[in-house]
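Schema walk-through. Below, the input block comes first and the output block second. Nothing else is stored per chain. Lengths vary across the set, and this one has 336 residues.
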Amino acid sequence: MPATIRDIKNRTGLSLATISKYLNGGNVLPKNKKLIEEAIEELHYEVNEIARGLVTNQSKLIGVMVYDIESFFSGSILHYISYEMRKRGYGVLICDSYNNEEVEKQNLKFLLNKKVDGILMLPVNLSGAFVRPAREASVPVVLIDRSFTDDEYDFVGIDNRMAAFRAVSRLIENHHRKIAVITSDVEYTGMARLEGYRSAMYQAGLPAPEKYQRLGRHSFELGYVSMKQLLALDDPPTGVFLGNYETTLGGIMAVNELGLSWPEDISIIGFDDLIVSKVVRPKIWMAVQPMGEICSKAVEILMSSIEEKKEQITPVKVHFGALIREGSSIRDMEET
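--- output ---
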């Protein structure tokens, strides 16, 4: 039969009030804390989290909504978040939105019904209107990687426009003049990275023709199909900026299938160095996000909101810089 709080009382000689205060996160005398913890270990006592939640009005659960759990990027984010929350004694409820705005709305309702203490979100929607029920319920929300275009919430990510600007500038510095981009024009990050590409080309006085701009939703298929289309042009680009990890993988696969190589036939710079640099040679130039730091900061902001039990008047916006990691996939066109 499972041990109860009364068994702890009998073992320690302490009052039920003192034991209950400790179990619900309150402060007790160090000597009493030691007695209680020893009794819990000896009796194999397990805290009834549901009952404790009724007392503390906290479920010790965090909801995490990702746009697509199949994405390598989402999986890596979930890894870091789970690690950070486990350190704090929290459980995680994960919801996959399948890149579907309606499913995302349903996921939010699900998490609110589960009485989560807060929500970390990699959203699909560009509009934040669907998140308002969380705000009305005083459930803090922190956005990771992607923000909204019409509503303000706490956010942690990178400066996507600057990351793309610097990546494309690396090609320009190596005397490339015909530079293409494969990225999203329907997702927050892709739209910002497309802006960075166009800005870099404009500042360098270079054309950015539509035929060199291959746009859609970030995916392996977008990278694969678009790279083949670019390389089949009568006047193909000499360099390509790939807008996220999946498009980078797709682009690499297309170059391989065509029997071409980088940087001899095409120069490439990709995004998010998750696995590809460990298995692909020559090594690809990459714009790299500090994913561990992003997740740690997002959790820190969320926990602060939960513990203070009040919403920030001005949402917190944290933008990390992206590292441009050196590789061997860019050829200097002046040397040819």
